[in-house]
Amino acid sequence: MRRSPGLFSLIFVVLFSLAAPWAARGGGPGFTVKEERGAKAPGFTLKDLSGADKGPGDYKGKVVILHFWASWCEPCKREFPDLGRLQTSLKDKGLVVLAVSEDSRKRVAPFVERHGSAFPVLIDQYGAVMRSYGVMLIPVSVIIDREGRVRSRITGETDYAGEEAFRYFEGILYE
Question: Does pTM surpass 0.85?
């Protein structure tokens, strides 16, 4: 069987193209925000792990990070503690994280018991809220400003522990 050098070159170029953005970020998640100012955030209430109803409407006047995730999603699991630290450092200034999981309570509860959570974890088992926010893949964070409008969207694994994320959210909180 004869090997084609053109095929190997093509494979190399494709693999390099896929790896280049990852390498440019230093090999880990970055912090990329897509601004979406203006639209009123869809209202909802979901049950948290204790059975209480919660939603962004409960946090009027605050900046809300709606973080869509699932317990089976590896990038989601890696982001979870960093989101907790971000909320802890900025909650006195008005930042709230609401984690919206597409899992059942039965799957989410053991994860939260094992890892803890500094913020409410809401159950959207059938994905109705995810669909209302146009979320097709996870992880995704939708940022809702103090007036209840969608401010921005962060898609994919994100470095919420970095200085760039802290400055971004601090800037929104001081507007």
Answer: no
